[in-house]
Amino acid sequence: xSLIPSLLGGQQTNIFDPFQGFFPFTSTISNxxxxxxxxxxFVNTRIDWKETPEAHIFKADLPGLKKEEVxxxxxxxxxxxxxxxxNREQEEKNDKxxxxxxxxxxxxxxxxxxxxxxxxxxxxxxxxGVLTVTVPKEEKKKP
Length: 143
Hints:
- The chain has 143 residues and is mainly beta.
- The protein contains no helices and 7 strands.
- It comes from Fagus sylvatica (Beechnut).
């Protein structure tokens, strides 16, 4: 029996593996164990949302992605949408895979922005694998 239950199902072992089942991926590589052939998406994209007096700031760790592979969109109803895709490595005929733990696939996150967000002034930048989206706020109206 495993000390941590596998979220992907499959074979139970007596080895304590803190990463087992916590990093879903897409794989069709033939020499990977059957339990690893589960299809999933790259949903582990963590995003921080911080509000300062001037803006709402979103930060996402997206290592290995280029800015061209990430979309930042504003939808109706003040919704900020961040999406993208990480492709898996190409299988080479002579390669022998021992482990695949890095996630691949599509991700999509949506955030409903508050009334004070200036939707027409959203800025996004990507540096060292960190996406930063800044949504300025309207100044508070003084009575």
